[in-house]
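Re: fe (iii) ion structure - here you go.
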Amino acid sequence: MVSHRMDAIWLNARLATMAHTGVPYGAVEDGALAVQGGRIAWVGARDDLPDKPEDFAETVHDCGGCWITPGLIDCHTHLIYGGNRAGEFEKRLEGVSYEEIARAGGGIRSTVEATRAASEDALFEAAQPILRSLMAEGVTTVEIKSGYGLDTENEAKMLRVARRLGSTLPIDVRTSFLGAHALPPEFEGRADDYIDAVCTEMLPSIASEGLADAVDAFCEGIGFSREQTRAVFEAAKAHGLPVKLHAEQLSNLRGAVLVAEYGGLSADHLEHLDDEGVAAMAGAGTVAVLLPGAYYFLRETNTPPVDKLRAAGVPIAIASDSNPGSSPAGSILLMVNMACTLFRLTPEEALAGITRNAGLALGIGERAGTLEVGKDADFVLWDIDEPAELAYRFGFNPCAGVVKGGQARPG
Ligand code: DI6
Ligand code: FE
């Protein structure tokens, strides 16, 4: 009698494992990948299979020579919100800057108003098309931040919607509490008092309900100071939550040094990052999350110091930053193209940025981000001839299938 050890095997595939194997893309030509119990149980060259495929696994899939990558990970989004900011986009085209709009009470604050007014169901419905658009390109894990509620009730509402998206749709959702995103109008002129509320009321309540996997903040002239950010990080630490930071997006407040001091998962944006910040991140193992969508949409001219990050060995991730104000994006592949064209990453670095390094940025590197034995069986089939095509084309989706937890995900 034949003993079927594996649930399923995918054959006749070219694997971009994205593992550190010394080969570009960790590639395996004529590869095979077997799954058991939702995990990757065997991966390698077909010639090395210990058995005939039909004896090795219950179900055999022929991939017809397509490429397989790890499931894509979008490690920085704000995709739950009320309303939209198309009107603000029109204003910016007339010459008003993003910061001017924010200082005049528009910007993030206008989204806060619309998000507070929206029901949980309405937010859930509004987020779905954005999330589905990312999923259609092979995203199997997404990070979603709060930050448009700015009080306990509305921040919790956003994070409950995020959890519900993750339990309803075939995608893993990781949440970040971003209470320190902007100053809500009721705290005008009292930023320290608001940070006190974030630390002593909002964060403890969100943490006790298990709604946040991490804590984020916006350290910026139009956001919060280093000292205010430090207070939020202290509160996060007291609740055992890892931290990350919107740092050096519009100016250099040395946020990267601060988040590195707290052993942060990531520092994100980084257009104004200096050498001290690069060194601190390298020392702490903090991932650099680059957000070309925001750079592009705000017409930034300072690029993140990619050469220095690379030289220092800082892992670089790429994300959509999907949000209504600075990056109303529904495509992770477009971000990969922009990371190459605008930031001069190589296609291999950009692909690592939405797989292996994005997994590190979320603290889930041991179970996601590469095709390696023991990791979640999340992977994407692509109708391409070489992996660089994923970065080369734009406005084009060659995704031919997605497997999530070992199961084909309905397209
Ligand atoms: N930086 C950003 O790019 C987003 N948040 C942040 O801190 C923008 C959020 C928005 O404009 O709604
Ligand atoms: Fe952001």
